[in-house]
């Protein structure tokens, strides 16, 4: 079970989200290259400036114990070692997302989300509110298998499109084994740069 990244009202701008990939490139004497992708899908690096954290609610807009929430997550993860779930407020909800078409035998389908012209598997599904098969809402007969599989008790029919409404998060780890928590004034702390990256689930 992953820890969850806390809600931090003091997160400031700019927030960066950087897709990262890895490719093995081998050059030949002819000048041609052979390129092999090493990751099956992109991973993401996040950088958040947190301008306001409070230990005691001195600044009501920052929560009641936001300093403790972030500090305890970082210590619990032991820096780069442990993992947590981060919900990106701009990339965490899918509505009527087509997942696959049934073949009459397959019962488990990975959750995915469409981003422009790309459809990729999501890292960790946090909740499923609706599942349809061939456009018909399924009241039961399915379950969420962590981290990201939709499992049916009976295989959907051949050609039946499977879709779902769901929320998802990114399994992540911190990128640094040390983070500076700055005490700016009584009751107010900050972290200039909090860096973490997604990992394969």
UniProtKB/TrEMBL annotation:
<dbReference type="Pfam" id="PF09343">
    <property type="entry name" value="DUF2460"/>
</dbReference>
<dbReference type="InterPro" id="IPR011740">
    <property type="entry name" value="DUF2460"/>
</dbReference>
<protein>
    <recommendedName>
        <fullName>DUF2460 domain-containing protein</fullName>
    </recommendedName>
</protein>
<feature type="domain" description="DUF2460">
    <location>
        <begin position="5"/>
        <end position="199"/>
    </location>
</feature>
């Amino acid at each position: 079970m992953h820890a969850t990244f806390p809600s931090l009202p003091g997160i400031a701008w700019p927030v960066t989200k950087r897709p990262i990939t890895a490719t093995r490139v081998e050059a030949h004497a002819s000048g041609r290259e052979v390129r092999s992708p090493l990751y099956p899908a992109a991973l993401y690096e996040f950088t958040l400036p947190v301008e306001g954290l409070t230990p005691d609610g001195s600044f009501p807009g920052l929560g009641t114990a936001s300093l403790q929430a972030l500090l305890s997550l970082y210590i619990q993860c032991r820096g780069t070692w442990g993992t947590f779930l981060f919900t990106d407020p701009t990339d965490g909800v899918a509505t009527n997302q087509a997942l696959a078409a049934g073949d009459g035998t397959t019962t488990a389908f990975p959750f995915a989300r469409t981003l422009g012209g790309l459809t990729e598997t999501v890292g960790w599904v946090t909740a499923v509110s609706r599942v349809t098969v061939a456009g018909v809402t399924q009241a039961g007969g399915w379950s969420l298998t962590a981290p990201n599989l939709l499992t049916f008790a009976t295989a959907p029919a051949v050609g039946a499109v499977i879709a779902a409404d769901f929320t998802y998060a990114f399994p992540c780890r911190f990128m640094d084994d040390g983070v500076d928590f700055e005490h700016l004034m009584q009751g107010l702390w900050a972290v200039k740069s909090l860096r973490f990256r997604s990992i394969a689930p």
